[in-house]
Amino acid sequence: MIKFDRVTKRYADGTVAVDDLSLEVPTGEITVFVGPSGCGKTTSLRMINRMIDATEGQILLDGVDVKTIDPPTLRRGIGYVIQQAGLFPHRKIVDNVATVPYLLGWDRKKARDRAMELLERVGLDLKMADRYPFQLSGGQQQRVGVARALAADPPVLLMDEPFSAVDPIVRTSLQEELLRLQAELNKTIVFVTHDIDEAIKLGDRVAVLRVGGRLAQLADPPTLLARPADDFVREFLGRDRGIRRLSFVSDEGLRLRADLTVSVSADVSTVRGADESWLAVVDGENRPLGWASVKDLPETGTLADVRLAPYGTFVRGRDSLRGALDAALLSPSGSAIAVDEEGRAEGVATREALDEALGKVAGGVGA
Amino acid sequence: MHEEPLVRWDWIGRNWPSIQVLLEDHVVMALVPIVIGLLVALPLGLAGVRWRWLYQPTVGVMNVIYSLPSLAVFIVLIPVTGLATRTTVMVPLTFYAMAVLIPAVVDGLTSVPDHVRQSAVAMGFTPLRRLLQVELPIAVPVVLAGLRVAAVSSISLVSVGALVGRGGLGYLFIDGWQRQFYTPIIVGIVLVVVLAAIADLLLVLAQRLLTPWSRARGAA
Amino acid sequence: MVAGKGGRVNWLIDFFGNPDNWSGPDGIPVRLLEHLEFSGLSLLLAMLIALPLGLWIGHTGKGALFAILSANAARALPTLGLLVLIVLLMGVGTIVPVLIPLVALAVPPILVNTYEGLRGVDPDLRDAAYGMGLRGSEVLGRVLVPVALPLILLGLRIAAIQVVSTATVAAYVGLGGLGRFIVDGLATKDFPRTIGGAVLVALLALIVQLGFALVQRVMVSPGVSQRQTIR
Question: Is the CB of B75 less than 8 angstroms away from the CB of C88?
Fold first, then answer.
């Protein structure tokens, strides 16, 4: 656990970057520091590994004041990832990753083996190992940056806007990679960003800081979205926080109907009389194919002869209510098809079912 | 002789007119190569930016020229340009100036950020106007930094010409050596250093005038 | 004095073809060794002064303005003037008088390029290096110097070439080296000798130039040198 105890950073010219900050970063969780520029989020992060020293207060790492530890020794036990990756241009990728193991005096072979293992783990082709940083794309460099930070298996990882400089598609894949890694590794991660969406996506807990280095609110994302502490946090969260909150509401309460799916091999005559205007058509393995409009069915033949309308699915038990709502909006029927992890249809969430689930969220805190 | 003071001021007073002649000669021989060098380096540098394949060979040739000892070149030139003429001294100095200035012009022009160049194109600048009004002004600090190095070494190198009979203030070194007399040597050294300092100062001032936008960011 | 191209080639044949010029105390091998001694010693001394100073200033940022200003002032010192003054003051006999102006010539490019090389390293790289727990000396030795190496070597190359070229003037005050051929040739109107000496010095400078290109290729990481050619 990392504990900030009344920490203040005041520069010689009187500027206060961080003002009386007290908070705890729990072990094995991702805590995100988020806020506008000038809110002291990066300063706070850099005080943990003593790249900057606090003026007042204490930062305790598992109960030990970081100021009592020699900075290089402290830093070798803490992974550090920065925006531009900061890879050493004169060293091959594998040696970049092995930097801290080398510093710690590991055997060369062991360090390189460890580096190769990590490159694989962060999703890089091992062919990259013998290249130099300038031969890699920005997203690949950032993956190397993460691998390098993890090399000596530090319990704590500090990440300073690590994904800000890459394009949105690469950023999304890097974010997902981080969540996947964290599920395996359970590091204590402090992550700094100015992007509230990134904070909400990645953070187990989010600390919103305001200009002048004061903590505005520290909460888990659903609480933050549901109950912003004040106008500043509300404004910083943005307009559509209601919708975004649905990401944290499980789809488990959603009622599914099993009677709205029909096999593609069925004869049109068997479904013509249905009470519904839309039916979800599935193949022999129960995978969705599309929506059939009941009133536009042809005179004869099977459902294979029917032109199907587009559809949306959500994975039951994994996607949130937001995923289900999104799937419903992609279908002309206004209903979403629920599938299992293998993509087989489990049933249909109708407008009425979605309505009912949304109604439960609207009042309470949800989740 | 060795008990006498390091500097005899009366000698300076008596010989000032002839020192002045040497000073003028020195200034001309140092300045002309820099001006010609710059006039040649600008188009060559531009060509090097436009046609990248041209740049490496040009720099290679300039590196070779730069490594030729000035005294050696003076001597090889004597049969062509004559002993003790200004030309003999100025020709190699012109090439040295070019060797410093061509890379400076190329570096300066390539230091223009791509987005600036692109937006100039997008706003409809013709290539010539873009060069004169956008790219050259942005290249000025780098070119002037090269010019400062070229000017100082040119002023210092002229004096070597004294060994082939024409070295401006360098004559004072020969004179002092032959007569075992400190004063002219010290006067020569001081005047060369002062000349170099004045040239450097003027170039710094020129940069301030030419690039007022960079002043806010502090001197280069 | 009027000579065609053929004439000058003949001068070279006269000089290099004469076996007397290849032996004895005034032969090419001896003069070449003397020249290498002045130049090598001066360069070594200049490196001992300028490299640690440049590394320290570039790494700490302390005293930068002062060092750069004095380096620029030293660039303006006329070597010939300095040489004759020092020889008059100290007398001949040792090679110390010739070392002083040559060291003064070599220090500025080494100092300035080392400093600029270190300052030019991407600040993110420093940050990452410290952040991973490298100590100050490790940041300097393992990150800053390898990345700044092309500029540091450029400074050394400029210094070496200037020293080799300028060591010629030592002959003027009666010292040895390849400059002897030039100065003696001038004094006795023996042009083949003068031109031959000039050609020798030029060849030596070119060899130094090539040598540094080779050193650069061996010492600079491809990750650094190739990145720069792309720009």
Answer: no
